[in-house]
Amino acid sequence: MKRLGQTIRDLWKDPMGRIGMIGILLVILVAIFAPLAAPFEPDKMVAMPKSAPSADYWFGTDNYGRDIFSRILYGARVSLEVGIIAVGIGAVAGYILGLLAGYFEGWVDRVIMCVMDILFAFPSILLAIFISAVLGRGLVNTMIAIGIVNIPVFARTVRAAVISAKGLEYVSNARSVGVRTGAILVRHISPNVVAPFTVQATLALSSAILTEASMSFLGLGIQPPDPSWGSMLSEARTFMEQAPWMAIFPALFIIVTILLFNILGDSLRDVLDPKLKT
Asked: Where are the membrane-spanning stretches (predicted)?
């Protein structure tokens, strides 16, 4: 907890880190309190279809007369839920595989990294679409698909950190006096993995949100009438000339949210490893 508090203080001292922290906190609060902040139900017709932004409907209405502002607030819940759970799936699996590959090396390393290389050979969005097509549409399958896509990058990150930490003197001393492998991995090697692992998790969140939006845009992610920024963009394609606000506001929220996570990830990298600071 002490180290966490120091990291937060260091992030707050960095102007970009402060922007990232405040921005992400606002997005989280919007997602949590969407039912209280949204003026209308996200799936209810509240006005004439394709009504322009006004004092009553801040972001206008869509082709079904639903309030876009309310749907965007609820869409934030979907994006964060998918991002956090999907990254959690990829992070846990990638951490375990990277730990095993980096520590034991040999055939264990070759087998694990061969599978990771195969997954890496496919563009992430195409791999996510393929997995989602096999599993079927829906929120849970979307999270599983995006989680699988994120496993290789976590496995590689953890493996590199483990190989580096394994050569440290105190790790070699622990092995020489007969400390068990499990204890070495947990007590001596894992702390050296925390910094790059945390940075990668932050950056992976932005990638997961973008992948979810892309899959929903293509009709393979969150299914209507549930609000999703990607599906809102998909519905807006036909009405770009008649009601451009239908596409502008969801796209703006996707861009800003991804930018905030990337800013936070870059600042976190600089704080946890000052040697990488440019």
From this structure: 21-40, 82-104, 111-133, 139-158, 197-222, 242-265
